[in-house]
Each structure stands twice: as C-alpha cells, then as structure tokens.
Amino acid sequence: MSSRLDLNRPGVWRELWPQALGLMTHLEGMVHQPLWTFGGGTVLMLRHGHRLSKDIDLFVPDPQYLGYVNPRLSDVAEAVSADYEENAEFIKFYLPQGEIDIVVGMALTAQPYEVVRHAGREIKVERSAEIIAKKMWFRGDQAKARDLFDLCAVANLEPKAIAEASPFFVRHGDAFLRRLQERAELARAEFEAIDALDFQQSFDECLQQARGLLAPLLKRRG
Known about the structure:
This protein is an alpha+beta fold. 46% of the residues lie in helices and 16% in strands.
C-alpha cells in the first residue's frame, strides 16, 4: 500500500522523538552504518490514527549496540535519562513524557521497513506487517490489551499486512488467546482504557476477530 505515515502528527511522542533520535545519532557515531528501525504502536498510530500512543520503540539487530546507548556506560545516554531499566535484550528509558525503548529484534518479514525522509534525514520506519509480526513472535505469550487492539485495527485497516505477518502468529497464537481469555476481566478493563481514535471496536469483538484470524493458522499447524 502507499504509505499514509504522518511524522508530523501532533502528540506527546514528538516530545520524546528528539531524545530517541539523539541516541541513534550517537550510535551512528560509534558504529559504522548501524541498522535501526522505528516501530511499535506509535508507528501504527502515525500510519492509521487508530489509538493514542506516545512511547518510542526503536529496534536494533545486534545486542552489542545496547552498550552504546546504556546510561551506565554512556554520558550521552545518561543525559537522556538516568532512570532506566536494562537487560540483555532491551534498554527502557523513563522520561516524564513517556518511555523510549531500544529493543534487540531481528527483522522478520521480507520488507520490514520503508525509508522516510523527515527533518532532513532518512528514517527506517517499520511497515505494519513487521510491527504486528514482532508483537506476535516476540511477545505473543505476554499479550496485552493494546496488542489485541493493534492486531484488530491493522486487520481492519490494512488486511494485507496481516496476511504478510501471519506466518509469525503460530509460535504464540495459542498462548496469545489463552492469556487474554484467562485475564479477560483485567484485559477488558485495560482495553476500555485505551484512547481509541479512528478505530472503534469492543474487547469482545476484537477477541472474537483474533480467534478467527488465529484458529485456521493453528489448525493447519496441527
């Protein structure tokens, strides 16, 4: 599809973006042509306006990159925030406006990103199929209400992306549905607290749609 991405969309995310970009600019000064991408729910918001999302999710393929953006090791990173969480797979910065996550995650789909020129530089922005594939492959067994909302929003607004991402649904498909069903009361409350924008669907409608998407894939797996 032709991109509907709007990197000028107003919102809290724009207050976090300069710090996030500064971290990646620092990484680019330390590593020769490092690959990094901008993804997650905020990119889906910038593309589809489905819900309010403010946090910045950046993905890198090499865990060694994290050392260059770790406040414990880098003055540049510490200047962004000394309040952070780290492990071998991510660094999460806590700022007054929200969070910046730098996550180790290899690309899954054949065309994981589009290159967009913004504010004088090129940004690799993940396509919707890659974002949904990552959500389901890497954390489908830790499903949150917003992951269900994002899945259904993309299924309705960009169905071709779901078809492209679907091979990555099988790994945690059962766990995704089971977790939402077992935590239905809490998940419903979290779902209803989502700041929905241009996409409106109830928790039960989305859960039913997710079952419909996942059941044939899980059945074929046997």
